[in-house]
Model the fold of this input.
Amino acid sequence: MFSSPWLFLLLVPWAIMAWRIWRAARAKGVIFASAATRFTQIKPTWRQWLCALLPLLFLVGTLCLIIGAAGPRSLLSREVRSADALAVMMAVDISGSMRGLDLSEGRYDATRLDVVKRIFRDFVEQRPEDLIGLVSFGGYASVRAPLTADHRALMHTLSGVTIPGENGEVDERGRRVTGDELQTAIGDGLAVSLLRLKDATPKTKVVILLSDGESNAGAVTPTEAAKAAAELGVRVYTIGVGSTGHTKIRGKDMWGNEVLADVWMTLDEQTLQQIAETTGGEYANVREPEQLEAFLKHISELETTRVERQIYARYTSHTRSWLIAGGLCCLLASVLLMAWIRRPI
Done:
């Protein structure tokens, strides 16, 4: 198998060169044969034999170089094995209230979203066989990562999830953020997660929905999304972050200096509880990082399903060996040509 088989087009000029060398060698052979009939006692010298081998050495060397350039490699080895796995969609709230600093345990150095991302990363590392996806939702929901077993790519995507800037501010992409983006569309976040789980292979399908506010936006209500999840057999585990009350966030004063401000936040626990009960899941209110870790650990102990996965090994490239062989043949021919053929034969 070759990575660049089109490079075998170089065999066309190589074949022309080989044909011309063969014709030239044949013509010289006839002359030598006719001369040998007159001088029967004359035998070819070792230099004459080298003369005959040089074209062959060049042809072999250039052929090896062409093969090496085409990228020879071994076929993929395929392994089919069984594994215990869940299909998990993580729906994370990125509304403005996720700027709260109450999960940083008084240090005020990490937002709610920062803590959630760190703990979610640990959860993913403990579930190497699971198919895990990521949906974020504020005023609208978007799929950040579909269900995947490539957890390294998932973690890379997770690291880029941020909270949109305040209304009128510019976000990290230099785009003006609207007020709608700072709202919370819980129903849309759940609905988008269900669409990604609908055709998943594992029988056990779970949504972990995390929010710290109340649903005030979106085209789908939380109740409608919960009924759809129940019909699909998807269990939804809901997590309410913080509580209703004053929470510190980082803001800026009128001079642009960063300050800590107390803001009032509302957590709609009733809606999150209703979603969990409708789908056969559970609800947990977390106010400390340890509580979130414990709840995710509880979810990781769920019944898994046995699925077959095809695991492919990487290609084994043989390009270097062919290039080295071709280069040595051409180098040897060049050395012999310089050392002996220029001398009288």
Notes: The first helix runs from residue 11 to 38. Residues 5-75+315-341 form one domain. The first strand starts at residue 78 and ends at 85. The CA atoms of residues 32 and 44 lie 9 Å apart.
